[in-house]
Amino acid sequence: xxxxxxxxxxxxxxxxxxxxxxxxxxxxxxxxxxxxxxxxxxxxxxxxxxxxxxxxxxxxxxxxxxxxxxxxxxxxxxxxxxxxxxxxxxxxxxxxxxxxxxxxxxxxxxxxxxxxxxxxxxxxxxxxxxxxxxxxxxxxxxxxxxxxxxxxxxxxxxxxxxxxxxxxxxxxxxxxxxxxxxxxxxxxxxxxxxxxxxxxxxxxxxxxxxxxxxxxxxxxxxxxxxxxxxxxxxxxxxxxxxxxxxxxxxxxxxxxxxxxxxxxxxxxxxxxxxxxxxxxxxxxxxxxxxxxxxxxxxxxxxxxxxxxxxxxxxxxxxxxxxxxxxxxxxxxxxxxxxxxxxxxxxxxxxxxxxxxxxxxxxxxxxxxxxxxxxxxxxxxxxxxxxxxxxxxxxxxxxxxxxxxxxxxxxxxxxxxxxxxxxxxxxxxxxxxxxxxxxxxxxxxxxxxxxxxxxxxxxxxxxxxxxxxxxxxxxxxxxxxxxxxxxxxxxxxxxxxxxxxxxxxxxxxxxxxxxxxxxxxxxxxxxxxxxxxxxxxxxxxxxxxxxxxxxxxxxxxxxxxxxxxxxxxxxxxxxxxxxxxxxxxxxxxxxxxxxxxxxxxxxxxxxxxxxxxxxxxxxxxxxxxxxxxxxxxxxxxxxxxxxxxxxxxxxxxxxxxxxxxxxxxxxxxxxxxxxxxxxxxxxxxxxxxxxxxxxxxxxxxxxxxxxxxxxxxxxxxxxxxxxxxxxxxxxxxxxxx
Length: 736
Ligand code: MN
Fold this sequence. Notes:
With 736 residues, the protein is α+β, with helices and mostly antiparallel strands.
């Protein structure tokens, strides 16, 4: 008989170990870590030391069962975001909520679900509403543990003979969450009350069945109830598969070994992470800020007080200690705002975690051991840690993704300094454009769409290779653009073309991955609203070591056009926007042109046959473009990644007029001229700083969004203000 039964006469029934509540287990775990700096205070790892092969086998078996759960469960779902693109992830947690192992997929949520479980324990859910065998919980609240509201989590306790021995968690990105503008990355909410359906760690089922009232409530709250329901079944099926796999493992290995294993594996991973930091990185302080714009001044749909152009400020400092400690600091980040781009510390911790899995620990045991070895400072009151729970989070990724560009650039420098040149990556392209909107679709149904082609933007260059072309994204290393036909099934827009976006890749000795573009045409819908979501006025991912950023974006649409006539005449129609100036379309079709750098806007009406260009950004480069091998540039031109004009202007490579091979003599002359031009323009950094100080900083010659950005950071963080003043040698009284 288990221990719980023995103490039942004298104490209330608890599901924790040794007669403790789960809340007590969490407190004990945190106290042991605070005291010793080791998970659960573990000094030795007896299970691993006695039989390391068995230890590895248990881990591999658990990991295999999670991957299996994901691959099986996603076939239950009909949401293309989940099925085609794999926007789901499963994870196994300890009773205290620390991740043990995980499936492939959208890894950012491994840690956010951990926070959700801990929230339930800290708030004594064990007492009320109860945490029983067969119960089901759901969460999507970023202030509890999430990135944005469309990522919906299902959490199921795993029982063994009356005790909780773990949690299974599954997350899917749903197609719509019922916010005030349609789509799953809503840009429209300005407060929590416009964000849509909130499920803050809600008990939504018992005895392995969902409560009918929960099902009905959700179906009536979102625009895509069928997909919501299928996604929820996907998450639940996966969690139940994980639970069965864990119980089968316990039957074979014994409960004591299982309990010991889930303790040791966390401490083992923590130690391994520390060793890897010491081995791979040069200690020091690395700084890499990032910015992204949103131009809302003319958005009549927004409340008056939120109609302005804004610029996100993400100061980013990575500190690497000699003993393998890794700390990330966002001190100086500006104030949270009345927009849906706010993040929570849970979101930032999830992002830190997903960045680490792709850099420092891609081939070790991936779990929360790494979380125990890292520190994260999110200043209170800033957009990374709002001091109110009323903030909107519909599109938290919009700020989060650029801000973590600093992580990749900092790690890239630290890898390079240690000599691991092959590990360097300059980051990713911005994960836009998102084609997003809603209305009555081509099936006659109310619908909402968020196109996830943006999970395949250009990757960052490395020092020994170019970035991956249209292949990946920061938040899901297994990104997939999805089949055109799958998107045409759910979106009332046909594809007229999908092609490489010329000149989107950041230039460099190694260039960034290329982006791509899709020309879409509204089809069989009376009324549909669409928006653009991406960087426009500023780039959000600089290159490193002299590499250039990938191009920032723009919006292009051709509305109220004469395509019907073009088709009737069987005349050529536009398949893209090769020159990024609309010409390819406007040469063939007449209509009302939308063409500007306001690349994030609010949903606006589109009609049948209107054209919408969705341009996925390219990645940043590494090293001086003039050092790129000329024959590689010739290949880029042949593959339309780089135009012949840009080859000459940026790379200094001149191609033969016919055949496209390198004109050696002209190239040598062109590179010489470019270098002489650079030398003529160059000034010493000291002189540039002195001049910039006078004409820009002292004169306060900033655009309104830039001035707002500085004011916000200086007001919120005296420490950042002091650093800014010290950098520019400004008087203590200086204010923007
Ligand atoms: Mn999501």
